[in-house]
Amino acid sequence: MEKELIRLENISKSFDGTLVLDELDLVIHENEFVTLLGPSGCGKTTTLRIIGGFETPDTGRVIFDGKDITDLPPNKRQLNTVFQKYALFTHMDIAENIAFGLKIHNKPKSYIDDKIKYALKLVGLEGYEHRKPSSLSGGQQQRIAIARAIVNEPKVLLLDEPLGALDLKLRQEMQYELIRLKNEIGITFIYVTHDQEEALTMSDHIVVMNQGYIQQEGSPEDIYNEPENAFVADFIGDSNIIDAVMVRDELVNILGTEFPCVDKGFGEMKPVDVVIRPEDVELVSPDKGIITGEVTHIIFKGVHYEMEVTALGFEWLVHSTDMFPVGQTVGIWVDPYNIQIMNKPESEDEEAIPLDV
Amino acid sequence: MFKNKKTSAALSAPYTAWMTIFIIVPLLMIFYYGLTDSQGSLTLANITAIGYGVYFKSLLLALWLSFLCTLICFILAYPLALILARVSKNAGQGLIITIFILPMWMNFLLRTYAWLTLLEGNGIINGILSFLHLPTQHMINTPTAIVFGMVYNFLPFMVLPLYNAISRIDTAVFEAARDLGAGRRQTLFRITLPLSVNGIISGVTMVFIPALTTFAISTLLGGSKVLLIGNVIESTFTQVYDWHLGSGLSIVLMIFIIINMIISNISDARQEAEG
Amino acid sequence: MKKTIERGYMVLILIFMYAPIVTMIALSFNASKSRAKWGGFTLQWYGSLFTDGPIMRALVNTLVVAVLSSLIATIIGTVTCIALMGMRTRTRAVIMGITNIPMINADIVTGISLMLLFRVLGLTNGFLPVLIAHITFNIPFVMLSVLPRLKQVEPSVYEAALDLGATPVYAFMKTVLPDIMPAVISGALMAFTMSIDDFIITYFTKGVGFNTLSTLIYSEVKKGIRPEIYALSALIFIAVLTLLFFSDRIPKWTARQKKD
Questions:
Q1: ipTM over 0.90
Q2: Does the residue A293 lie in any domain?
Q3: C67-96 confidence digits (pLDDT tens)
Q4: Does A72 share its domain with A196?
Q5: Mutation test of the interface with chain A: which of B180, B186, B198, B201, choosing the one with the most A Cβ atoms within 10 A?
Q6: Which residues of A touch B170 (CB under 8 A)?
Q7: Helices (H), strands (E): how many in chain A?
Q8: Quick count: other Cβ atoms within 10 Å of Cβ A294?
């Protein structure tokens, strides 16, 4: 693992009496692509702004490269930000925008000129030096915002939902572009988004946040395959989240029927949440399933069929390449490895909230 | 919407007539009187009169005082507009603007007149000064008092466009400047000021022209001791009844107005080019 | 610390703005006729105000001119804006350019130019020239408020009404007018304020013996303003304050008034 670069200790922040961050601790390592992921209002942008120096935490410290920078103003920090709506300086041309930080730091003209050329090449906009920001498309403006930030050779680049304003196709293009950029310049990226797909595609490390708490952090695979609670499971991808009782190690009672699983150590007769991904619910003939149910909805999604199967009084979301017509009775079978057991949330705050993402 | 040319022409006829009679003709009359003498023959004497004696002195004084007034208004208003732009993000902006606009609903002559009570020799301000054992100030009937009255009357005309311009700037732009290493001062001079330049020009125009052409403020606070070009033009019409000279001097005033107009049009055009 | 300085600065400017108003309201309760000394508290000026002929006449004149001129300006201005929509861009630009002249020009020049016209036409009997002058400088405020709004109106709604069999006038009344009404009202209010507020143009265009409040006050400055006028101004100020309290519209159009 790389060297530790940023450490947030015990950070709390409230606005007008509303607690946005609650005693948050977070460590970010050098050269990582870290994504803060969560619904709007979860505190991800506030966390980013505290790292950037635009907000001061009510409590706690921000440690950067071993030094406490909690009270350091943004202009003294060795990091740069790419803003959500680009925040380009409309009264300057592209070259002046990119040169802004370098001029502030009194770099020689030849150095600045080289840097502008290099940065424009890096973002694929050679020859745009003397255009005005307003004559550029959204995607181009975004690239300039990135160029303007990276010419200052920051140790960390902060990106606040930078792709939010772009259309889908451009957004996907920029995702690969950002990964390429990150590999080329070799610095830490801290990326804020509410788009789970974006997070899964780009990140080395994902921090899932909700209501001011970190819900889970880990690699994209960890987060997707082993969600630690119902919120994460619900927020990342589709899932069936079902109330259940852990009978004993490796056996869980879901809605009255016992399913074999592989989890241990939850205790006996303990209420838990069970997560089963829709692609892990296997539809078989009625006699081969653990339970049986009836198909109630079916939609063709291109790669697979999305079906809803009512069984044990629960609507099971199923993704399958096999088609079962509505009304048909089917058996449901789940591989024990694909049943993810989670502790019930301990407090109200951690309760999964319905999302409209 | 209304593609019918005949209807449009018919509907616009009353105003076109009104505009011609009450805007264009009166202006042409100023030019007619300004460029002729009492015999009706063509002359430039009414305009060149501005180069002599009381006319020249009153124009210079008016230019100087309105320049001072504009400068002071700008210096007072810019920090205020910065504060207002920030504060109004939390408190409703309507309330804040209202507070600065409200005085304008009281007759400006009366408000200016009230300053007499505050400024004059045995007025309230000198009362406070002498109570504090500070030297009292003689202000009434001096150019200083006139500048004071101008600043008082025209300050809102500077504050409002500046406030509009500054509050329209996306705050992320300030943050971006700080992020890229600019300190507060650098952000102000490299970002905020250039981005509010249209507000500055519009504020300057809106303060400078009425200050340059006022005659009421100078009459009230200057007694009859300080003459500005506005006073001279006013008395040329209302006491001397010399329409030709008065019109000639008005044409001179219009030259300054046109210069102002050109400057603000250029800035408008530039703003449009920038989007 | 920074906040304290900022707040202190705002307070200082507010004191500067409001000191004369407070002074004036105080003087309206001053028993002494001289503004230089305090003669004790009295309400007598508020009483004698209503029996004071010149002041009451000036008040009535001010209000009549303001109401009539803003009403007429609103009608002419709105109709003209509608007509402009059907015109070529070039024609429209010329008309708007001329309309802007009274707004850009110094009031003293506008006032003098109208005075020259009225003198030549022999219009010197007080009320009528002042009304015409006020209508003239009010129309631009109405048009600058209505025209931008009218440009935003979706023509398809009007066309749909025609398509469904409405006559042009009926279709206009039912579709376009409700849409532009807020702009018409704010233009009218702005015109009203401008009219009440005007001194310079009224001063040059009024005939002998005709006064609005502004010109009355100006004529009294030399001999000293009578306390009744303070009383009246205090009343007007309180009235405006009350109006503002009940409507949050006014700040919006005031902020716009010089900007547009």
A1: no
A2: yes
A3: 999 999 999 999 999 888 888 888 888 998
A4: yes
A5: B180
A6: 85, 87
A7: 8, 20
A8: 14
